[in-house]
Amino acid sequence: MSLRPPRQMVVVVVIAAVLGIGTGVWFAGHDTRPAIAPPLQRPAVAAAQPGDPMPAITLPDLHGHPVDLARFRGRPLLINVWASWCGPCVEEVPALTAFADAQGASGVQVLGLALDTPEGVRDFLARIPVAYPIVLDTPGPADASVRLGNAQGLLPYSVLVDAEGRIVKQKLGPLSAGEIEAWARH
Fold first, then answer.
1. 156 touches 77 (CB < 8 A)
2. Residue 72, beta-bridge partner list
3. Is the pLDDT at 34 greater than 50, yes or no?
4. Where does the Thioredoxin domain lie (predicted)?
5. Cα–Cα distance between 43 and 46 in angstroms, integer?
6. In the chain, which ranges are continuous DSSP H helix?
7. What gap in Å lies between CA 146 and CA 35, rounded to an integer?
8. Considering the chain, what percentage of its residues have pLDDT values greater than 90?
9. How far apart are CA 182 and CA 154, in angstroms?
């Protein structure tokens, strides 16, 4: 009795091996996975620059009522973007409050834009009250501060808008007491 496989069996095994190797080589050179669409990119938010009109922004106040920032046109507007958890923001609030109080009915208006929760802002204002209006926004890549030119998304951030609604100045970092008056004179 011979232990050698019949010649036909050897030929079939060789052909199967060649086909298997050939198929492997073909699949290695071809991507057979289903096509997956790349992740959707968020549209870039246009960050305003000095000379640009202030973007159309409507945000809720602490009571949830919408505030259209266009309503401040007619007088210069200093928008201060802050948060209750931001140390430098908290430090500049007394100077901003004093500045706002000194402006009267015809001076520069001050608006606080809090990138914070309503509860965080209410707790803060219970300790350190301010008389100027506060609006709220959720921090993110397209929040109001980014649209107002804060490309880095850092706080505090201030924007000076003229009476016609054009951005005059932008500043990243805290405003000191003496600096606010000089900075607001455009």
1. no
2. none
3. no
4. 48-186
5. 9
6. 7-29, 87-102, 118-127, 144-147, 177-184
7. 35
8. 67
9. 23
DSSP conformation class of 105: T
Q: Is 117 helix (H, G, I), strand (E, B) or coil?
A: coil
CB distance 114 to 136 below 8 Å: yes
Residue 45 pLDDT grade (very low, low, confident, very high; cuts 50, 70, 90): confident
Which helix (H) or strand (E) element contains residue 78? strand 77-82
* Amino acid identity at 50: P
- Give residue 43's pLDDT: 47
Beta bridge partners of 59: 67
Look at residue 123 in the predicted model and tell me its pLDDT: 96
Distance CA 117, CA 124 (A): 11
Is the pTM here over 0.85, yes or no? no
| 177-184 and 87-102 helices, crossing angle to 10° | 60
What is the spatial distance between Cα 47 and Cα 41, in angstroms, rounded to a whole number?
A: 17
Q: Could you give the CA distance from residue 166 to residue 77 in angstroms, rounded to a whole number?
A: 10
- The token duo for 80 is 């201060």
Pairing of strands 109-115, 77-82: parallel
Measured CA to CA, the distance from residue 181 to residue 97 in angstroms comes to 12
